[in-house]
User: Fold this.
Amino acid sequence: MKVILQRGRLEAFPSEAVVAFHFEGETKLLRETKAMDKASGGLISEVMQSGDFRGELYQPALIYTKGATPAKRILLMGLGKRRDFHLDKWRGTVSEAARFLRDKGVREFSLCPYLRGERKISPEDFSQGLVEGIYLGLYQFNEFKTEEREKIKEVEKVHLVTPDEERISHIKKAVDVAEIISRAVYLARDLVSRPANRKTPSMLAQVAKEVAENNGLRWKVLNMEEMKALGMGALLAVASGSHESPKFIILEYKPPKRGLDTVVVIGKAITFDSGGLSLKPSENMDKMKHDMGGGAATIGVVQAASQLKLPLHLVALIPATENLPSGSAYRPGDILNSLSGKTIEVISTDAEGRLILADALAYSQRTKPKAIIDLATLTGACIIALGENVTGMMGNDEELKARVRKAANRTGEKVWELPLWEEYEEQLKSEVADIKNVGGRPAGTITGGAFLKKFVGEYPWVHLDIAGPVWAGKDKPYIPKGATGVGVRLVVQLLRDWKVGS
Ligand code: BES
Ligand code: ZN
Ligand code: ZN
Assistant:
């Protein structure tokens, strides 16, 4: 799909469809909508007077202009009530419009990238939100469909038309940013959507390497021997049940400027989580291909950060392995030597994410980071606690958590904090080792976080449990059913704002 920004008047623009917007319950039309109404000889007013369209949130009304305007159709979209309106609803509205037109077979449409005269949101934020909404809403995963490919409907061109000459260069920047971020979300979604036999740790390392080479990043992939030599006993134990060799993927974005802050992003990448010998029930086990959603988002984040040329030093660590049962698999009761030097008693081989993250967290301290952010589909309990739409946040640093909250508000990726009080650590005490990997059923998400905290040391750190939002069970505005790419927009926003307030 191509997004083309141009100066002009929407009502004079020839197009398959023009999208116009309206707030619920208002009689006054928005500027562009009014211009379209006038140019079409009152077709919009007519629909409104008929009572068929009230401007409710995401409500569509399709009008055929029959030659009254250069555009063949006008799609009128409801924005809901003005007082409830915010940027995320805007992303949702344009996404719904784009999907509506795509499903009708429309391949090209036009719209103004912002609501002129609506001052709560800047034209740049409107434009970025609009382009993200369109891209993210139109995402489809068709990699493995070989039949009837001609029936796949796709939008080819979107024209952003604005009369505002002065603003156009700023809007162009916002559009570029949105395209970079959306491409990174697409990358994460594609990786999460792919089944485990098409994204083994080696394949994932290959993708990471390509991302690195295409974006001038440094990269390194540690193989099993190198991990052994380093002493990554926790990661290696998880990998021991599989014939696929584990990979520890390192991507580094380092602009030439000296003295930049170092931020480490760590992503859990279990390319398939069967639970290992603590085998999961077979119902829904296929979904455990998404247990690398943290790693996928991390690759997306470095790609976007480098393309946005952010002024910081970013290190991405992606421990990647399968978690399978076999004669060589690690067992409940085993005691592991982790990279940190701490010994870990394995209670369940299904609590494997925290094991691979323990080694990655220990490794991350070599870079002396200003912040460590980990993204992980860590606990089913997080879905029970917060539901499918919300990321669980835990951490040891108030300022870093505040940065995450701010990025969450800006991007609409919902985050809610859970406490990491010391008492929870009691649940992880082992009689035979330094720590055990499961703390029982109470507060399952928090004890996951408390386990990780033991491997962080003194560095500012935040843990994001994305078990809920990594996968959408149903279509949502700008998030089609399936892999969501959660975490990419959140962390990129945090990194874009890094300098602000530090
Ligand atoms: N990958 C799972 C967590 C998960 C479950 C993510 C469902 C998304 C949907 C993780 O490795 C796991 O199995 N965790 C266990 C931990 C338990 C053994 C302490 C869980 O949540 O049951
Ligand atoms: Zn597991
Ligand atoms: Zn897992």
The chain is about 35% helix and 20% strand.
